[in-house]
Amino acid sequence: DGKPFRQQSLKRFDGAARSCSSWDNLTKDPELCFRNGNCYVYLYEKGQSSRQGAAYEVSIDRLFAAQARPLMEKFLDRSMSEETAYRKGRIDLYVPAPPTANRSQALQYHVAIRNFLAWVYGRSLVGDHLGNAIIGLVHSMDEFRDPGIDNIRDLLNYLDQAGYLDMRNQPHRAVGLLHVAEVFQIENLYIDAFTHCVGMSERLYKCPEISCVSIASRKLIKRARADMESRLRRVSIMLSDLLEEELSESHVGLSMGERAHLNGFRSYIRGFYRTKFGSFPPPPWHPRCGTIFRPEVYTAMKEDFKALYEYLVDENFTTVDNSPPVAHGGLCTLQSVYEFDRRHELAALEHPLPLLPEMRRAKLSRRRSLMPWLVDGLGFRESRTRPDQRHSAHAALLRATNQGKAHLLDNELVLAYQRFEEDSVLLHHHRKGERVEKCPIGTGDARKVRWLLVYAMYQTLRTCAEVPKEVTSVTDVDYHLGVSTKGTPPWQTEEGADPPPTLNRWNADDFRPRTPQRRQSISAAPLLTPVKPSKIESGLHTGMEIQPDIDYFALTHRGESRAQHGHDGQIAVLPRSKSHSLRRTMSIRRSLSVFRTVSQRPSTSHLAVSAYPECKPMHPEISIPRYGTG
User: Fold this and answer.
1) Confidence class of residue 374 from pLDDT cuts 50, 70 and 90?
2) By the number of CB atoms within 10 A of the CB, which of 36, 61, 295, 439 ranks highest?
């Protein structure tokens, strides 16, 4: 199967340096010849006429530490007496190719032996392709180490320490590790490599090893790429005007003052990003990508709004909480954010509500206590507040945040938001002639209005910039990583029943870049797969209507109860002895005594060459202290 394995095609894969170079040191590898080596490894049968010396000179102690006794038992030169071994200060291992192997298979077998010794010493791998080299290494570990060892765990530790798991901007490496993960069914590694392959899918046709990846995985890559581009296009249009259409009058019912405040806050955010990116909306990533922005734009905005969400969120309220029976009036925040999630088929966040300011004030007058709808969330009409009241209102806003999380204050958008809130309270009343002066809103309701934009922006950005948790390296990449992993890994679905293909089962055209005309349209895929709503969402997401939440019945029937609804990889080395010659003699004596007492094992199978396995109310009322019905 596949192309012949030729020595001239061998390459050395340096994980840390992220490089690949030609390699031709199989018969004598300086990288695996050590001055203290007391185990000589020959890549031919004892007695075979050869002018070649030992290919590798390694330490017996390192082989024992790596639990590689089966390797020494199988290939030890038993014709050498103990006295001769003591005198020479070494033992010899003769490793001929399997008798039935052809020339290409023999070369592949010896490369696997070399890579096994490279793993023992933490050196770089060699081979025709990285994935094939790693697969051959695992087969060597299975055959030449003691039984009962978790070789996959040790392999992953080695790959991590050697730098091979860093797949950023390395399509050949991502494809190779995807191949490995598929053969040994390593789920986390598969999703990590799969995500990078989707992000770099237009480069995969240049990777010969893509032919070793199963048909199911190649289909999943193309499908995930089309889905990602569709979501990016749609989200880019939404972000271009900062959700002006999604939060318009046709979707969210706001008063004139609330609408004016939302527009002012949106303009402020637009100015912030115009300064940050040089223009807003930012220019397209590439002419053929249409409205899609550069990857760093989505990442930066998502981190900004995540920090702002965490700065404002009320962590004491969750989506599974039961709602108290009394309403206090104001904007229906909970219903508004749930309706946004329902329209865009998004999973609601666990904490959907913001912290709201509470004034430390004197007892309200009898008239205000009897007419609470005349006051805002702070207990006064803002247009008539005195300077000391405005400072108190600003202090209340600061208290109604999670500023105890100091890391949030390192975010520029959070700092800009603090300035906006301060100006909106302390400077608001000096702006005579503005329309907002005619339609003032309470400080609490203003926080709710701003929360609608913050929550909706964060949810929108998560749909295209949320990276699968299995991806270990996400910074400094020049492609998108917001990939859907639906249907992965393929061996857990019916679609993934096919084994990895051979080289002649793949057409390179599958991954060639396509012209813009052949790309999937925006309307061809949904923003996200519909999510099954939770108990509380089930009632809200069915025919919900956004309404002001002042509950006059609750205000006049506070005593009546209301029904509530549901709710390590380096191999250890023995310490050096004071006498170098004594240590060598003891090592040889120990190894020979072990082999002298061990009965000859049945011949273990040689390395498999190219053996890669292949009737309730429609919308129940919700009332929450300080938030109203929502």
Assistant:
1) very low
2) 61
Among the three residues 118, 150, 182, which one is the final residue of a domain in this structure?
A: 150
DSSP H or E segment with residue 575? none
Specify whether 269 is located in the same domain as 146: no
Cα 427–chain centre separation:
43
Same domain? 127 vs 260:
no
Q: What is the pLDDT of residues 15-74, one digit of tens each?
A: 999 999 999 999 999 999 999 999 999 999 988 766 678 999 999 999 999 999 999 999
Residue 282 corresponds to which amino acid? P
Position 68 in a domain: yes
Q: Are residues 145 and 234 in the same domain?
A: no
One-character DSSP codes across 415-464 = HHHHHHHHHHHHTGGG-TT-HHHHS---HHHHHHHHHHHHHHHHHHHHHH
Please state the rounded mean pLDDT for residues 305-326. 80
Residues contacting residue 11 through CB under 8 Å, at least 6 positions apart: 20, 21, 22, 23, 126, 127, 128
CA–CA dist 402, 313 (Å, integer) = 8
Domain boundary among 87, 120, 150: 150
Which residues span the domain enclosing 259?
A: 229-481+523-544
Paired residues of 42 in beta bridges: 94
Residue type, 66: A
Per DSSP, 573 falls in state: -
Contacts of 254 (CB under 8 A, 6+ apart): 262, 331, 449
Q: Quick: pLDDT tens for 601-627.
A: 444 444 443 433 443 444 444 445 555
Q: Is the pLDDT of residue 274 over 50?
A: yes
CA neighbor of 392 nearest in space, from 404, 382, 403, 406: 382
The predicted structure's pLDDT at residue 592: 58
Number of domains in the chain: 2
Pair 267, 123 in one domain: no
Task: Give residue-wise pLDDT tens across range 196-225.
Answer: 999 999 999 999 999 999 999 999 999 999
**533 in the same domain as 428:** yes
Residue 186 located in a structural domain: no
Tokens, residue 615: 């009737």
Count CB atoms within 10 A of the CB of residue 385.
19
Residues 330 and 446 in one domain: yes
CB 135 within 8 A of CB 161: no
